[in-house]
Amino acid sequence: MWWLARKGASGFSGSSTAEEVTQGIDGSRLTAIVTGATSGIGVETARVIALRGVHVVMGIRNMAAGGEIKDTILRDNPTAKIDMMELDLSSMESVRKFASQFNSRGLPLNILVNNAGIMATPFKLSKDNIELQFATNHIGHFLLTNLLVETMKRTAIEQKKEGRVVNVSSRRHKLSYPEGIRFDKINDKSGYNSLSAYGQSKLANVLHANELARRLKQEEGTKITANSVSPGPIATNLFRYHSLMDGFVGLLGKYVMKNIQQGAATTCYVALHPQVEGLTGCYFADSNLAEASSQAADPELARKLWEYSSNLVSNHRD
């Protein structure tokens, strides 16, 4: 895949792996939460940042699968500091419980990797009666970030170390519905398109990071950045709900797509690399700064989504 090998300004490329982009970085004083760390690039993200000494808390829905992942990581890296806590991003109750339990442990929090996601699912509403992809990929992470950001601020001040929020988006954020975010039709089954709905949720990830970055910059003394990343085309089980794409991945994936090690690279780069220090409200792909869509760069759309999301969250309190 020669087109992935062209290096950008960072010195890395689409063919760089997560281990390569974090080589030599010491994260031994850092604590990170990685959501969705039981499959695909989430597993590799957790493994590699743990390899760099970071204390990793896996926020996961399937605790049995998480236990196996944790055992595998510890078998290969016996000194890894890795914990797991139950988290279902499609449920606001679960998100609130996770955040409450994490905050009560008194742990620092330097890095929040909002990675968990589902893709191209048949139309379904979440437990909170929100379209499932929007609920899981965006609203769950929006709420989680809001509930953890004060801990991140406190950690950044105490350690005099920049905190980082990393939203894992997708190139498909450029292929949302024509209007970008269908504020009045989030739960409209009749106009639902599974891939467009996925694109909408991934567009929301970029807009969320951008607006969070804007708000944090306005707070004097707050040293926390918020960025979004595209892992690139990867052969993962995200495609399981879309038979045509799943077939394509099975047939040609290894020839035209990244592997998991390459797919997790940009997330790990933005989470840990000193080159990224001070950069906020940015979009990264192939471990380099990249250009998001015009919709993703629209500050008014970002503000509108923030208010919309805040209202959804406040209307679903326990």
Could you explain the architecture of this structure?
It is globular, with a radius of gyration of 18 Å. The protein starts with 17 loop residues before the first helix and ends with a helix. By secondary structure, the protein is α/β, with parallel strands linked by helices. The protein is built from ten helices and eight strands. The model is unreliable at 237-241 (pLDDT under 50). Strand 4, helix 5 and strand 5 (163-168) form a beta-alpha-beta unit. 50% of the residues are buried.
Outline the secondary-structure elements.
Blueprint lengths: L17 H4 L9 E5 L4 H12 L3 E6 L2 H14 L5 E5 L5 H13 L6 E4 L17 H28 L3 E6 L25 H24 L6 E7 L12 H14 L3 H4 L1 H8 L10 E3 L2 E2 L9 H16 L4
Question: Which key terms come to mind for this protein?
Answer:
318 residues, globular, 8 strands, alpha/beta, 8-stranded mixed β-sheet
Number of helices: 10
- Strand share of the residues? 5-15%
**SS-derived structural category:** alpha/beta
Mean pLDDT: 93
Main sheet makeup: 8 strands, mixed
Number of strands: 8
The end-to-end distance, rounded to whole angstroms, is 49 Å
Strand line-up of the largest beta sheet:
3-2-1-4-5-6-7-8
**pLDDT under 50 segments (min length 5)?**
237-241
Run of helices and strands: HEHEHEHEHEHEHHHEEH
Rg, Å, rounded:
18 Å
